[in-house]
Amino acid sequence: MTLILDDETDLAVRKHCMKALRDIGVRSLNEIEPHKMAWGDLQKASKRMLTASRDALDRITDKTSAEERRQVELACDGVMELFNAIERECDIRTEEGSREPRAQAASKAQLAKRPVMGTAEARTGGYDEPEGDVCPALKPEQRFTDWAKARVPLESDYRGLSVGQYLRSMVLGGKTDVERRALSEGSDSAGGYTVPDILSATLIDLARANSVVMRAGAQTVPLTSDSNNWARLLTDPVPAWRAEAGSVAESDPTFGLMQMIPRSLAVQTKVSVELMEDSINLATELPRVLAAAMAVELDRVALLGSGSAPEPEGIANTSGIGTTAQDAAITNYLNLNAARTSILTANHNPTAFIMHPRDEGTFTGMTDSDGQPLRMHPKLEEIPWLTTTSIPTDGGVGTDESTIIAGDFTKLLVGIRSDIRVEVLKTSAYASNLQYTLLAHMRADVAVTHAAAFHTITGVQG
Length: 462
Hints:
Layout: H1 7-16, H2 18-23, H3 39-58, H4 66-96, H5 108-113, H6 119-124, H7 144-151, H8 163-172, H9 177-186, E1 192-195, H10 197-210, H11 212-215, E2 219-223, E3 228-235, E4 254-260, E5 263-272, H12 273-278, H13 282-304, E6 322-329, H14 334-345, E7 352-355, H15 357-364, H16 378-381, E8 385-387, E9 401-407, E10 412-417, E11 420-425, H17 428-433, E12 435-448, E13 454-461
Parallel strand pairs: 2-10, 6-13, 7-8
Antiparallel strand pairs: 1-11, 3-4, 5-12, 7-9, 9-13, 10-12, 11-12
Helix pairs in contact: 1-4, 3-4, 7-10, 8-9, 8-13, 10-13
């Protein structure tokens, strides 16, 4: 949970927000450990640093040099890293039911799921790909960026270059040596750019942070080839008691082949020439917008993907999952309990309910005969409720039906290729409105490792 900024960003924050740093009692944001801070101090640090970053932006004038503008942008990026770290810490404490400081940076849930590292894994930080049967899947708290850094020892060549700066330099041209080198190494004859692995990983981590299925516990698999085969356990072996010197009963597990093939996912956004040239925070906002758009679509296919090429097959269309047909409006919690029971019966523990905000609003708006909020069983309260607009609400006969998906989302894998391609297009929008079109393209796939770990509630009416 400790905040880690590169040297240039850290220096920019200290240059433009020094008074705010003194106010919260640190010399650098890298000294802050959110899990050790009191709740009130977290709120104070967040508000004070955000105010300082806004003040720095307000000091920008037409006479401010391009380099000074860049330094202010870096400072704002660093402050946003702090803001996001504090927000994650507050979320963890809220889920755990205590606002007190914590001894460990990881949450209780993360610590409970964390495997014990062997010698090789400890040396590499858990992101090596040794021979054998070690699963390279990354848990939600592990960063794709760290995995990429372990594979690309020349990461320092791009030190100080953010993905937002790289995207801007594709349009305006490189202003620094590192930008020009990155553009030169990533360009191709078709007019597109392959984003360097380290910067691609940063964009992927932004998308993962915006993804609901990731927050529910889904694991990320870095796909290193065009076809990736996994063994899927279909049935468990059954042990049996035996008498002394008696024979050992045979019971073989049944395995099936699960193949993950990177499929194309693309998103485009229009940016005006003026905004690209003059905006102070575009280098921060552009990657965020692209990542958020990718996250929404990744969530949709992970939950509801049809499986018809080129779309991956999502949870709802996976053979063997449990299903309850509600085909009615929400009036109680019975079907949520049925989903929970189905998952527990399959020897899994549900990590989340995922539903459309409309349905979550219906649940929270239910009242008893006295007009008080309708209480649910504490066992259901323990399971996080997450919402996403990736689940449609216009299905069914009445065109107002949606789906609620419950499950142990650690049994969902999201495979992602580490390289992202970005193209700058001058379409008709450029001729008419002076707008560039940025086209971002990545390859991904999803797979369910244990179908019985999931349960859908269909026909949920508004």
